[in-house]
Design a protein that fits this description.
heterodimer, A: alpha+beta, 2 domains, two-stranded antiparallel ribbon, about 15% strand, B: alpha/beta, Rossmann fold, 4-stranded antiparallel β-sheet, 7 helices
């Protein structure tokens, strides 16, 4: 009976009730959506690199090293000498190394010079290895392996030829036109920056820079592929090195040793620690986003409260009638409570529908534009908790009109003298 | 026969004030109609509130349908009111978000005895509401509509009367039910109401300033401040 009355009463205030409902639904969807994005971006962030014990680069800050080596953001101020890399490679405590050399690009995507050891040792997510959707690792001086997004966006297939450009820009005029690369493999999507990278051999990268000095091609010094193959292509420098250790117990020891080297100043960081540090920076924005959507929810609840309270004066009569019919003050209060509960609950449900609908619709654009993988999945415990909080706040704000009604019902003598 | 209302040595005072209402003895049998008049502040509405069980703290004895109100909890008095009393206000009797049938049926959702009585009478609560609305001469086409705003005040009061009557409560309490009506609709209202009351042998307690109403009543009570009957 209570629910029926509450429904009828809400139905009679259809317009404001529906507006409130939509406000609540939107703020619910916003809040839960932001939470979803937070969780998923955090996951894919920390999943970017795993199984690597140390990242080594030239002396710089750990976050900066992480940014350019793993996320391909920004650039290194200085590089590691090849001899230092070889020393690392020969160190008995070190099981494997993956050299990384950055600086060139292809139509806005970063070109990374590396070794086939990358495909063997690089891990992301839950220690997942890289897999080839097509083809295989580098098999020639001028072969290139491309990430899933590069292949999709630029429409490259196996054995396609492409030319890399000097520098990181999208519209660089300084292109290594004379030495095209052939696609030898395409990686499956990983959700990491490797999706947006082109991987070539260190020697290949060295070859395209033959006849270049200080980033500028010297006139008349350009080489053909045939000439390049005959030259000494030992790299002079690498940008960073991913290191796997024989025993993880050695990690801190080796890190300290590398960080204290005098001959070639190096920085060695633990990926997990650096990721955590970087996340501290990134997560400010993410927390702000949560705060804003939390504020939106509060506004929604205030709107509901405004609708419920603005009706209270008119409902004085209704309360008097119900009281005369023998409804107890508690029952009258629970009628009001039921109304706000109905509003909050249906707002919550509609919000979930909006969230799922929105995520289904936005899934592809978000992945394309931001590399953000949103899966309309089951609610996470945090989202359940947020849903619970929304409901709780709804109930709490519903308590205010309910309490008012209760007091009215108590004070209201049956017959009022005007 | 058990009296519907029985009052003995009733005294009521607001805390810290002189008694505003004193009644030595008052007894109403089933089907009796009492007209209560008196100046403002003479305790008319207090008396109605006491009988309806909304006001609890009084001295003396009030019993309603054989049940003493003394020592009843607020909850029990609410229950008693729901089961045994139909209430008519001066105005704003109806819930604007319910249609007429639902407005009239409302007491039956709050009281099982009245629901059963309505069903005994007409087969269903809806049918009984329909019957009463027809008896009170409301246009059938309005019954299913949320039409409170479209009704004249006279019509609204007749819907309220139907609601007070549904489920055959022993007592109807009416507070100035005709004060917002003009002379013609007042007389029509009273005639229809009294016809129904006579049919069901229901007791009526009506408060009014309007001396014109007193002719409809066999019994009268004049309250004069802290007076008696």
């Amino acid at each position: 009976m209570l629910i029926r009355l509450a429904l009828r009463s809400l139905a009679s205030r259809r317009a404001s009730a529906l507006l409130t409902l939509f406000t609540l639904a939107l703020s619910t969807a916003l809040l839960l959506g932001v939470q979803q994005i937070r969780e998923q971006s955090r996951l894919s962030f920390f999943d970017t690199v795993s199984g690597t014990d140390l990242i080594v680069g030239a002396r710089s800050g750990p976050v900066q090293l992480l940014l350019y080596s793993v996320f391909h953001i920004g650039s290194a101020t200085s590089n590691i000498r090849w001899s230092s890399y070889e020393a690392l490679n020969d160190d008995p405590r070190i099981a494997w190394t993956v050299p990384l050399s950055l600086g060139d690009s292809h139509r806005g995507y970063r070109v990374v010079g590396t070794h086939n050891s990358l495909f063997e040792h690089y891990r992301y997510g839950a220690k997942q290895p890289l897999e080839f959707a097509q083809g295989g690792p580098l098999n020639d001086l001028f072969s290139v392996v491309i990430g899933a997004e590069v292949a999709r966006e630029l429409g490259y297939n196996l054995d396609d030829r492409l030319v890399i450009a000097h520098g990181a820009g999208n519209t660089s005029f300084k292109r290594h036109d004379n030495l095209p690369f052939k696609v030898s493999g395409i990686l499956t999507a990983t959700g990491t920056p490797l999706d947006r990278a082109l991987l070539v051999s260190l020697e290949g990268l060295e070859a395209v820079h033959l006849g270049w000095r200080a980033g500028i091609p010297l006139p008349g010094m350009q080489v053909t592929p045939g000439q390049a193959r005959k030259r000494d292509l030992t790299p002079r420098e690498v940008t960073a090195v991913l290191v796997g250790l024989e025993s993880r117990l050695q990690t801190f020891h080796l890190q300290r040793e590398l960080n204290n080297r005098r001959d070639d100043p190096l920085t060695a960081v633990l990926p997990g620690v650096a990721l955590q540090e970087l996340w501290q920076v990134v997560s400010v924005a993410e927390k702000a986003l949560l705060a804003v959507s939390g504020a939106a929810l509060l506004i929604g609840l205030c709107g509901m409260l405004a609708v419920l309270l603005s009706g209270m004066q008119q409902r004085r009569h209704e309360i008097a009638v119900l009281r005369a019919l023998g409804a107890s003050p508690l029952r009258i209060a629970s009628l009001l409570m039921t109304e706000s509960l109905l509003l909050t609950l249906s707002g919550l449900l509609l919000g979930l529908l909006l969230l799922w609908g929105g995520m289904t619709l936005l899934q592809q654009p978000l992945l394309d534009l931001f590399g953000l993988r949103l899966v309309p999945a089951k609610l996470s415990p945090e989202q359940w908790a947020l849903g619970g909080i929304i409901l709780l706040l709804g109930v709490l704000s519903g308590l205010i009109p309910a309490l008012m009604a209760y007091r009215m019902a108590l004070a209201n003598s049956l017959i009022r003298r005007n | 026969m058990k009296p519907i209302i029985r009052i003995d040595n009733l005294r009521f005072a607001w805390p810290g004030q002189a008694p505003m209402l004193e009644i030595q003895h008052l007894q109403l049998q089933a089907g009796e109609h009492l007209f209560i008049q008196g100046p403002s502040g003479s305790g008319k509405s207090t008396l109605l509130n006491l009988i309806a069980g909304v006001l609890g703290s009084f001295e003396g004895e009030i019993s309603l349908a054989g049940q003493s109100l003394v020592n009843l909890s607020e909850r029990q008095r609410d229950r008693l009111r729901a089961d045994h009393i139909g209430v008519l206000f001066q105005q704003f009797n109806l819930l604007p978000y319910l249609n007429l049938i639902d407005n009239v049926s409302l007491p039956c959702t709050l009281s099982a005895p009245r629901r059963e009585a309505a069903i005994r009478r007409s087969g269903s609560v809806q049918a009984e509401a329909h019957r009463l609305l027809e008896r009170l001469q409301l246009p059938t086409e309005l019954f299913q509509r949320r039409a409170v705003a479209e009704l004249s005040i006279g019509q609204q009061q007749r819907v309220a009367a139907a609601r007070a009557l549904i489920g055959a409560p022993e007592l109807i309490i009416a507070d100035e039910p005709t004060s917002a009506l003009d002379g013609a609709s007042r007389d029509r209202f009273m005639q229809l109401l009294l016809e129904e009351l006579d049919q069901s042998n229901t007791t009526l307690l009506l408060v009014s300033h309007d001396p014109a109403l007193s002719e409809y009543f066999s019994r009268h009570l004049t309250l004069e401040g802290a007076g008696s009957c």
